[in-house]
Design brief:
The complex is a heterodimer. By secondary structure, chain A is mostly helical. Chain A has 13 helices and no strands. Chain A folds into two domains: 15-48; 75-296, MetI-like fold. Chain B has one domain (70-293): MetI-like fold (Orthogonal Bundle), CATH 1.10.3720.10. In chain B, α7 runs antiparallel to α10 (218-233). Chain B is an all-alpha fold. Chain B has 13 helices and no strands. The chains are: A mainly alpha, B mainly alpha. At the A-B interface, α1, α4, α5, α6 and α7 of A face α2, α4, α5, α6 and α7 of B.
């Protein structure tokens, strides 16, 4: 700013143009806020509809769709849980597959990424390239052999099989993001620890891992999203009714309850709510994590 | 003039005990992630290549014949495979352009840190937390219950010539927040002095956008395009939700149906390999073109 005051033309024009340019800037800012609010409102419409339909009674929803219900009710949520046992089973399966998958990925990929970020030898470059190449393999390309292997191991339609497959498939993208982050973590502290005679294992867990908290949080939330919402892996591996996760249960439920929209939407909301709570309570990490990881990686 | 190498260099370099231990620890650190990756991605990928050259029918068929390139040639001539590929390409093109244009526009308006901007960013990213399955089901009602009364045109998901664009719009809704965050990260990394210097030199807003902002965010553009390319080409979930629409069938769905539905695993696997090749090829082309335009900081 100090430099501009040396520039005579700016000083001369400043008084004359100030009023006009301030009005222009104000109008531009208002227009920007208006546009942003309009887009945000449009983006939120599907959420609003889901909520609205889920709190309408059957007679309400068959009468009018978009009108606010005459008697909002949470009865639908209870009915969904009570009347269809696969809702509960779906919740249970999604929970006991998502949590271990996310933890396995957290431990394994942070350790691997630490080594890959700190070593530049040929061997490590090849390993990194190998890990990363997995990003370019669509699930459809490996599903046949993977299904046969998992079936022969007796793990088809089991939670364990799904956990293994989902974490293995997620390794590549996690290694990419975490390695990018570790490269930006200064080495000083781990070098000091090494000089003090701290072993690699202890150095990692007591010094490096805590420093990785931001990227670890991002990984936890993103991997939870990917596993909780997964359909393409689940539909191949989970072929029994008892092994269905939420997305599979939703589709079946939706197909059977086309006439009772309010119930189907209550089910959608039930599956969405835990994830939304997780996202909104950790959004600080997820937003900054995606922003820092993506461009560097 | 030839210089004799010192005799010592002829000896194979042996690793010191320290280096050996270091190396061993590194390998142990990478092992868990690598085993997962190998079991789920690497080994199945290597197993599936030979399958694409056989006439293997059912997944668990015990006998099959080697047929060379037959599957590939058959698929290249097959109208339904070509169609599925066209649908995938249409979906991916609209999806990449839409999500990037909207993501960048929003990023340009929301990149500065502030309470309003932070809240809006959080809301705009929210669709990314919804499963693709639920997104499609909810949107089918957004189309019929809101779009149709407003515009008078029927839901695109019910019109065979529009269904793929209807799905692409859902994908744009879901992922533009992700693109936006990556663009915001890039915009925040542009040093403010560049703009100040440009203003001193008499640059207007257009000049700034054209000569500072755009060149500086090319890495974000590369990240977004390659990511969405890989998500778009493997589009499966959206398409599966409108399975009765033939014009919505993507290559991933085609492959799934051949392997698990039609009991023609060899042909399906050949289609999957071709999809992977297209993804690898396009990713390389995009990266090469865009990397050239990246400016060094």
């Amino acid at each position: 700013m100090a430099q501009t005051s040396y520039c005579p033309t700016t000083v001369q024009n400043f008084g004359r143009e100030a009023g006009r340019s301030r009005a222009k800037a104000l109008a531009a800012a208002a227009l920007r806020v208006l546009f942003v609010l309009a887009v945000t409102a449009m983006v939120l419409v599907p959420f609003y509809i889901s909520f609205l339909y889920s709190i309408k009674s059957h007679s309400d929803i068959s009468l009018t769709r978009l009108a606010w219900p005459s008697a909002p009710t949470f009865e639908n949520y209870l009915r969904v849980i009570r009347e269809n046992k696969y809702v509960g089973i779906g919740f249970q399966n999604s929970l006991i597959t998502t949590v271990p998958t996310v933890l396995i990925l957290l431990v394994t990929t942070s350790m691997a990424s630490f080594v890959l970020a700190r070593n530049s030898g040929k061997f490590y470059k090849i390993m990194y390239a190998l890990f990363i190449s997995g990003i370019l393999v669509p699930f459809q390309c490996i599903m046949l052999s993977l299904y046969v292997n998992i079936y022969s191991a007796g793990l088809a339609s089991s939670n364990l099989g799904f956990i293994l497959a989902r974490s293995g498939f997620q390794v590549s993208i996690s290694v990419l993001t975490v390695t990018g982050f570790v490269k930006s973590v200064p080495r000083d502290m781990e070098e000091a620890a090494a000089i003090d005679g701290c072993g690699k294992f202890r150095t990692f867990w007591s010094i490096v891992f805590p420093l990785m908290t931001p990227v670890n949080m991002t990984q936890i939330v993103l991997n939870t999203l990917f596993v909780w919402n997964d359909y393409s892996v689940a539909v191949v591996l989970l072929r029994s009714d008892e092994s269905r996760t939420l997305p599979l249960a939703q589709i079946v439920y939706f197909g059977e309850n086309m006439t009772e929209l309010n119930l189907a939407f209550a089910f959608f909301m039930l599956a969405m709510i835990p994830i939304l709570i997780l996202y909104l309570s950790t959004q600080k990490y997820i937003v900054s994590g995606i922003m820092s990881g993506a461009v560097k990686g | 003039m030839t210089i004799q190498p010192p005799a010592r260099l002829d000896r194979k370099p042996t690793l010191s005990r320290y280096a050996l231990r270091e190396h061993g620890a590194n390998i142990l650190f990478m092992l868990p992630a690598f085993l997962l990756f190998a079991y789920v991605v690497l080994i199945p990928f290597l197993q599936s290549i030979p399958v694409s050259f056989t006439d293997k029918k059912a997944i668990f068929a015990s006998s099959w014949n080697f047929v060379g390139m037959d599957n590939y040639l058959k698929l290249l001539k097959s109208a339904s495979f070509q169609d599925s590929f066209m649908h995938t390409a249409q979906f991916t093109a609209v999806y990449i352009v839409g999500a990037n244009v909207l993501g960048l526009s929003l990023a340009l308006m929301l990149w500065k840190t502030g309470r309003f901007n932070n809240i809006v960013r959080t809301l705009l990213f929210m669709p990314f937390t919804v499963s693709l399955v639920a997104s499609t089901k909810v949107w089918s009602y957004v189309y019929t219950d809101i779009l149709t009364p407003l515009t008078g045109s029927p839901s695109p998901l019910g019109i065979s010539s529009q269904v793929i664009y209807g799905l692409a719009l859902i994908a744009i809704w879901r992922d533009m927040g992700y693109c936006m965050l990556i663009y915001i990260a890039a915009l925040q990394s542009v040093p403010l002095e560049y703009y100040e210097a440009a203003r001193v030199e008499g640059a207007n807003a257009w000049h700034e956008l054209r000569h500072i902002t755009v060149p500086m965010i090319v890495p974000a553009f590369t990240a977004n395009v390659t990511l969405l390319l890989s998500w778009g080409l493997r589009c499966f979930d959206y398409s599966q939700m409108v399975i009765n629409m033939k014009t919505a069938k993507t290559t991933a769905v085609f492959v799934y149906e051949y392997i698990f539905g039609n009991a023609r695993a060899g042909v399906g696997q050949a289609g999957a390999i071709m999809l992977t090749l297209v993804l690898v090829l396009l990713t390389n082309i995009v990266t090469t073109i865009l990397r050239k335009r990246e400016v060094e900081m």
